[in-house]
């Protein structure tokens, strides 16, 4: 399922609660705590996306399997969001570094090519070595 489809608000609270296998009142409580943020229709009806349902299932796993309370769940969700932002930033920085490396390599290559144009071989001659006392040939 594409991200856009997963984010599209489709389900009323009763359907979302059934899909997440929890009571609708639990969804309302999670919304009050800020753990879930359903969209609202023009008539202010809560509409949940498949992404919301997956988040509800995840919250349920954290509370039942991991034994976290809602404050712990909130902290885990915050940390995961921070981690996702940081990973995106790292990918962005890696892309920037790769671009700068390619740019630097091209500039170095250009400098090396310019050296070849400036160097002129000299004809072979006898080398004169001077010492402190005499000149050798």
Number of helices: 5
Strand order of the largest sheet: 1-2
Q: Give me the CATH architecture of the largest domain, please.
A: Orthogonal Bundle
Shape: elongated
Tally of structural domains: 2
Indicate the mean pLDDT.
88
Q: CATH class of the largest domain, anyone?
A: Mainly Alpha
The Cα radius of gyration reads 34 Å
Structural class: mainly alpha
What would you call the quaternary organization? single chain
The topology string of helices and strands comes to: HHHEEHHEE
Give a count of the beta strands, DSSP E runs of length 2 or more: 4
Low-confidence stretches: none
**Biggest sheet features:** 2 strands, antiparallel
In whole angstroms, how far apart are the ends?
A: 84 Å
The third-level CATH topology of the largest domain is Multidrug-efflux Transporter Regulator, Chain: A, Domain 2
Sheet-strand content, in percent, reads 5-15%
> How much helix, percentage-wise, in residues?
55-70%
Give a verbal description of the structure:
With 137 residues, the chain is mostly helical. The chain folds into two domains: 1-67, Multidrug-efflux Transporter Regulator, Chain: A, Domain 2; 72-117. Helices cover 64% and strands 6% of the residues. It contains five helices and four strands, in the order αααββααββ. The strands form two sheets. The chain has a two-stranded antiparallel ribbon with strand order 1-2. A hairpin with a 4-residue loop joins strand 3 and strand 4 (135-136). Helix 2 (13-20) crosses helix 4 (50-64). The protein is elongated, with a radius of gyration of 34 Å.
